Amino acid sequence: MNPKHLHVLGTQMFAINNWCMEASKGGVDCISVRIRNHHYFRGDDLILVQMSKLHQLCHMDALDKSLISCFCL
Q1: What are phi and psi of 68, to 5 degrees?
Q2: Mean pLDDT estimate for the chain
Q3: Are strands 30-35 and 45-50 parallel, antiparallel or unpaired?
Q4: DSSP of 14-28, one letter per residue?
Q5: Residue 73 · residue 39 · CB < 8 Å
Q6: What 8-state DSSP symbol labels residue 3?
Q7: pLDDT category, 72, cuts 50, 70, 90?
């Protein structure tokens, strides 16, 4: 996120932005999100979300299926 616009972010978006900045410095390219059986009725599982998709979320750009899944959980 552009540092000039950080003041308009909500608390959670600000936290995600800070975490993403630190994670990208550390070379993280994706995160795993745990889902439970009652979310998709296919047993406990993990969804991989790419850091670039989180970037799109922070910029309210095109959303992908994995992000919509995380948002709905």
Answers
A1: -60, -40
A2: 78
A3: antiparallel
A4: HHHHHHHHHHHHTT-
A5: yes
A6: G
A7: low
Query: 19 near 4, Cβ under 8 Å?
Result: no
Question: CA 66, CA 26: separation in Å to the nearest integer?
Answer: 22
Close Cβ partners of 69 (under 8 Å, ≥ 6 residues apart): 33, 35, 47
Q: Cα(52)–Cα(24) distance, rounded to whole angstroms?
A: 10
Contact between residue 52 and residue 71 where contact means Cβ atoms under 8 Å apart: no
Element (H, E) at 67: helix 65-72
Extract the runs of DSSP E, i.e. beta strands, from 14-68.
30-35, 45-50
pLDDT of residue 67 exceeding 80:
no
